[in-house]
Amino acid sequence: DLILFWHRRDLRISDNTGLAAAKQQSPKVVGVFCLDPNILERDDVAPVRVTYMIGCLQKLQERYAQVGSQLLILHANPVQGIPALAEAINAKAVFWNWDVEPYSQERDRTIINALKEKGIQFLNQNWDQILNSPEQLRTGSNQPYTVYTPFWKNWITKPKANPVETLQNVEGLTEAEQEIAKLAGALTLPSAKDLGFIWDGELIISPGEAAAQERLEEFTAKAITEYQEQRNFPAVDGTSQLSAALKFGVIGIRTVWQATIEALENSRSEETAVNIRTWQQELAWREFYQHAMYNFPELADGAFRDTFKNFPWQTNEEHFQAWCEGRTGYPIVDAAMRQMNESGWMHNRCRMIVASFLTKDLLINPQLGEKYFMQHLIDGDLSANNGGWQWSASSGMDPKPVRIFNPASQTQKFDPEGEYIRQWVSELRSVDTEYLVTGKIPSLERHAVGYPEPIVDHKIQQQQFKLRYQQQKVLS
Ligand code: FAD
């Protein structure tokens, strides 16, 4: 019996829950990936992300060939494409792993019905990209969590599965069946350019399972032991940069977890263990936001907290453009935005700084920033990005009522030598460190190097924000 395995956010054959379950059902397993126009034609797709994804698919095809099978590629709406392909190649069942996003949930329900109508089984119901399912995590009163700390305390006590077996020695399609698959729409993998996405820059992480595994090993061998401190400095290479691999499931989350357990076992001091635990907490943030998206799909449409549902955000296209392009006159903000525009990735500390700046200094709707991030991030992910933006805008699941980042004090703490600023804002390279970290660059000097005046005054703007917040609180 042939089983069709539909890859979505699990572009790997190792430690893949659904794929391992498919292999247990039958020795004949064929993979498929669907280039979904509903996703690719949205206006929040980053060329860098598609480029990475296509690279990963290429590697995945190679992996399938190594184990004796194929990864088919469809360019179609999966609602029609998947059942039609399954029927054409006479698949007995279609397997896949669950996804938390509202779009995927709805799409999957429709496809399950379409498969049923054709008499094809949908057997698999696996959570694969998270360590614990949303059903496993409930508060004392049996509600989903909306606050991270109690979530973490409960989550860390729950058992976590070991990595599952890598797909090996499978049977694929015969040549005749491959011809049938072609007739049903299977095609060769297009390049990102063929799909209209042009990214000429380098990728922060090479595509594919092997590169992600290597990155994990490198990070857990050393940087993880200093993570708690080093992760805050954007000029330092102190974080894993595994976010894109995790977004597309190029590495299994159980494999990542196991690496942290091994690092803990090898740690020789309590101090080292604390650093490793801190990184585990970041993985828990990732799960917290995925569970949140699953439990509260309305998060995708706007503010979680009532106070922010009708917030009087300001419309100012000029300010928004200056923020997008890294021309606000605030060096740390501009460095961060240019890092994202040029490399497709931004350091977490800076994501918080620029999100605070857009919402608290420019008083611009966080949804605009959220979308701009999706248009530029290699790791752009609905749950994490929405969670980060709602946290920064104070509109989401953060118990602190209003959090405002001061760009100057953030720089003094986390880029004290102005190294990161100089790396990304080339016109500021020769400017004194003191000026860079306080943001108080004299007008003459700004003019001389071609760097703009601050577009707003942080002190005045934060008062404005607080005032509006107080008014909304009364109204809501
Ligand atoms: P590490 O520090 O090595 O962390 C390990 C992994 O944990 C990350 O790869 C990521 O999967 C997860 N993680 C870490 N921090 C967070 C967090 N705060 N929330 C959720 N998961 C986390 N992350 C994304 O993956 N995609 C996004 O689109 C995204 N948008 C963000 C937007 C804003 C406004 C903010 C404040 C944060 C956003 N983050 C997003 C979270 C975080 O900034 C990135 O995950 C992190 O910078 C990726 O770098 P890293 O892999 O080196 O992380």
TrEMBL record:
Cofactor binding mode and count: Binds 1 FAD per subunit.
Cofactor(s) this protein cannot do without: FAD
Residues of the Photolyase/cryptochrome alpha/beta domain: 1-130
Binding-site residues for FAD, renumbered to this chain: 227, 239-243, 279, 282-289, 379-381
GO molecular function: deoxyribodipyrimidine photo-lyase activity; DNA binding; FAD binding
InterPro entries, per the entry: Crypto/Photolyase_FAD-like_sf (IPR036134), Crypto/Photolyase_N_sf (IPR036155), Cryptochr/Photolyase_FAD-bd (IPR005101), Cryptochrome/DNA_photolyase_1 (IPR002081), DNA_photolyase_1_CS_C (IPR018394), DNA_photolyase_N (IPR006050), Photolyase_8HDF (IPR019947), Rossmann-like_a/b/a_fold (IPR014729)
GO annotation (BP), single: response to light stimulus
PANTHER family in UniProt: CRYPTOCHROME, CRYPTOCHROME CIRCADIAN CLOCK 5 ISOFORM X1
Family under the similarity heading: Belongs to the DNA photolyase family.
Name this protein carries in UniProt: PhrB, deoxyribodipyrimidine photo-lyase
